[in-house]
Amino acid sequence: MSLSKEQIEEFKTIYKKEFGKEISDSEAYEQGTKLVRLLEILHKENCKHEFMKKHTIKNRKQLNIVIEVEETENQKGLVFIVHGLGGFKEQHQMEAMKRAFLSNGYTVVRYDSSNAFGESGGNLEDATITQYYHDLENIIEWSKLQEWYQEPFVLMGHSVGGFCVTLYTINHPEQIRAVAPISPVVSGELFSKTKEIQEVIDEWKKTGIREWESGTRPGVMKRLKYDFMTDALQYDLLTMVQGIKVPTLLVVGENDEVTPQEHQKLLYDMLSTEKEFHIIDKAGHTFREEPGLTQLENIISNWIKKT
Given this model, what pLDDT does residue 50 score? Predict the structure, then answer.
């Protein structure tokens, strides 16, 4: 979603008429975009999509996994969207991803991983990359029994979810149409050397637990065992992605300090397939603010049309 120059000018005119104050183009763009998003949400609440359904299944650890499937008429494709560590399916960036695919005629499958902050079972402190990956495998196996399932399908994931969709593409190339790791964890070693982790890793390893405040849910404290790092250090996508032969989209925020653009460039350079790499100005790791969210949605939508 993007506002045209004419729409921005119209918004500025209306704003001045209603509030007696002039605003800049950037202020008009930000406020106008927020208004449009609010209207979209209200419209969806009033006109619930008749094809949106929730399901609950058990993963291999017998924890509940809550899945949301939003079908489209005349389905043009299928996508699985995977959130990151401690995330949930309704995060802003996950909604942007969903909108991009729905507008292009895809059926969208999202879910809350176990040991995260969504509706599924488990506790964040027990999370590992391996467990998130196994949840993705469980979701796809369950999906194969559904009427809307089709191959090849698209995979998209954010952060740890981005790692998981990339690894699944490597392990199951025959099932995949295209893959889009958004700000993915590239390797456990690179992740351990980021500024954020370097500041806490000694204490984390010593105590066995890390605590910090959630960026998407202010006031909520996250706890994570050092087992997460022990598990992560066994993985390195840079040694595996040469086998990917499907279209691949990489996106990262300019100010991402969790999975920085330098890591993404290393991954991009190792890919030997049709590929795109976008850096979104002034965006952080989770693309929570405008205009980053709109830019992310537009990048994904344009990419879908080409794949």
Answer: 47
- 279 - beta bridge partners? 252
Q: Tokens standing for 22?
A: 């002039």
- Integer Cα distance of 186 and 300 in angstroms: 20
Boundaries of every domain in the chain? 1-48, 50-306
Tokens 């499907």 sit on residue:
246
Sign for the pseudo-dihedral over CA of 160, 131, 204, 223:
positive
- DSSP states of the chain as a string? ----HHHHHHHHHHHHHHHS----HHHHHHHHHHHHHHHHHHHHHHS--TTEEEEEEE-TTS-EEEEEEE--TT--EEEEEE--TT--TTSHHHHHHHHHHHTTTEEEEEEEPSSSSSSSSS-GGG--HHHHHHHHHHHHHHHTTSTT--SSEEEEEETHHHHHHHHHHHH-GGGEEEEEEES---BHHHHHTSHHHHTTHHHHHHHSEEEEE-SSSTTPEEEEETHHHHHHTT-BGGGTGGG--S-EEEEEETT-SSS-HHHHHHHHHH--SSEEEEEETT--SS--STTHHHHHHHHHHHHHHH-
Q: How many residues can be counted in the chain?
A: 307
* Mean pLDDT in consecutive groups of 10 residues from the start of the chain, 307 residues: 77 85 86 78 52 93 97 95 96 95 97 96 97 98 97 98 98 98 98 96 96 79 96 98 97 97 98 98 91 95 95
- Level-2 CATH architecture, domain 50-306: 3-Layer(aba) Sandwich (3.40)
